Model the fold of this input.
Amino acid sequence: MKEKVVLLGGTGSIGKSSLDVLRSYPRDFYLVGVSGHNNLEELALIIQEFTPQYVCLKEEDSEFIDRFPGINFAWGETGIIELAELSEADTVINAIPGMAGLAPCLAAIRKNKRILSANKEAFVAAGEIINAELDKSDAVILPVDSEHNAIFNLFTRFDRKDISAIKLTASGGPFLRREITEDVAIADVLKHPTWNMGPYITVNSATMMNKGFEVIEAHHLFRIDYDRIKVLIHPQSQVHGLIETIDGSQFICASPNDMRYPIALSLFYPRIPADPPFGKIDMRHQSWEFEEPDWQKFPLLKLAYEVGEAGGILPAVLNAANEIVVEKFLAGFLPFIYIPEIIKQIVDRFENISQPRLEEILIADKKARIMALDIMNAILEQIPDPESE
Ligand code: MG
Done:
């Protein structure tokens, strides 16, 4: 029998890769529902190709809905929740980025779904709440993010007591071998050496904030202490994760830097998909490097460990602050080099709340966004305008 899949965020980058995997295995999976916020014409193509029964739009659009009689349409935040809870679906792929991915994640957990999660913000901001809900349900979360997917595939095949550390790899981004100076241009930051991703995550890769978020995500996903989560720079991005066992062995999981690999592995888990049409690494032509991250050059990585260790509302604050500051940078208002300092200032101003309720996390998220704008404006006034000199 085909597994019935709901895809939330079908028109984004992870959504497209997910569709390509479903397209490659038509005998195994059926796309029963899809949501797409970004691009209606793309959504129309998805509907024509995959014939889902349920489609969620950003907002009600009777002209679009009339084009597809026989399909059940929903829209907005409530529509996303309806899709996440869909009784016909076995598996929910959550490819909605940002805090908007949290509510459907919790809804799918409460309905005991198998959840393929590509949303890291929800785990960063509300990891403890997600885990508490998971403990009350029969839902499982399979991480799609390449590093966590690699570690998940190793982790779950070992006895937990035999694992001494997990190691997330990081490409190091465009500034691994380059100094970060005042005049770094947006285009330099968006030139990711190995992965082709959206602009927000590419900036986070350049500051290594992305890896910091992944450390926090790993802490919750694998329920493992921070001192046993390591980061290794691996510029080739082919080894995605490692685990070290108590005898000192290192087990690695490697595949081409193509998101269709982790998506297919999690769709089929615990089985292994046969003959993926996405190519494979030719081991004869590789020279893999691994090195320690430069903690001075990438202070946000260190900050993520501190914030993760502190827990409470601070991870949500870090996530929100980063989102606003990076937005400003991408809009051309802020030099790249200022990003870490501003984020640190925002986090420092918050008094932490331990074991916060979901509402307290959401309030902290909102407060951090407002505060980020205030602090940034104050700092921007002090930065000399290069044009006027
Ligand atoms: Mg990743």
Remarks:
- The longest strand covers residues 29-36.
